[in-house]
Amino acid sequence: MLALDKVSYSYPQAEEPTLNNFSFSLKEKRVGIIGPNGCGKTTLLHIMVGLLTPDKGQLLFHGEPVSTKLEMYNLRREVGFLFQNSDDQLFSPTVIEDVAFGPLNLGFTPEDAKAIAMKTLENLGLHGFEERITHRLSGGEKKLVALATILAMRPKILLLDEPTNNLDPKTTSRLIEILQNLDLYQIIISHDWDFLSHTTSVLYKIDHGHIHRCDEDHIHVHRHIHKAGDHPHNHDLG
Ligand SMILES: Nc1ncnc2c1ncn2[C@@H]1O[C@H](COP(=O)(O)OP(=O)(O)O)[C@@H](O)[C@H]1O
Ligand SMILES: [Mg+2]
Known about the structure:
The protein contains 7 helices and 10 strands. It is an alpha/beta fold and 238 residues long. The strands form 2 sheets. Strands 6-7-8-3-9-10 form a 6-stranded mixed sheet, with helices on both faces. A 4-stranded antiparallel sheet has the order 2-1-4-5, with helices on one face. The relative contact order is 0.18. Bound molecules: adenosine-5'-diphosphate and magnesium ion. Magnesium ion binds next to α1.
């Protein structure tokens, strides 16, 4: 559906390419991509939605290279991108205006766009948020509203950049539940193993400009500390 073929990308003045002869193809429904800070995760997603253009190689959508404006428009109709920072996504005074903006842009009448927006908010448990002032929402609320603005456009593929950054545990749990119930392709970028293990079925790792699949489960030891007591105890490894 969505693929990169031998893509290289360097930022101006960078010594090393961020992505180097990088190939990836979206085949599974729920893909997690993990990697340390600065390894190129955001760069990868920006290339996938055309915010950055590869120096070498190609972006492919449904097996065809994406190069013209029309091809990019068609890609963006089907691929929704949740920015790491919700303030990059939300720009209208009220929640309903933000969520209805996409459907309006797709040519729906104002009434239909509003109805789609209301339904989307309801599906995300945001009923009653319509008239809230967007910039006054909490970080967690903004994240869910930003997701609503994308889902209102009915994408087939959802790309999420570090969706749990700065989220409180309750909103993170809600987001996990929402993503698990969404029947569309998802690529989730995160450094949060626990979150990815709940939301994705395959995991890739970015390392030195390349990507590889991490297939095996590993049991690993956590060092942790409890506030009080030295009583032996078990941890649920499920
Ligand atoms: N606009 C930019 N100009 C120059 N270098 C950048 C820019 N954006 C990111 N970089 C650099 O490119 C590398 C990859 O960045 P990024 O894709 O944001 O990584 P990640 O999302 O994995 O943390 C980092 O070394 C970062 O400093
Ligand atoms: Mg990033």
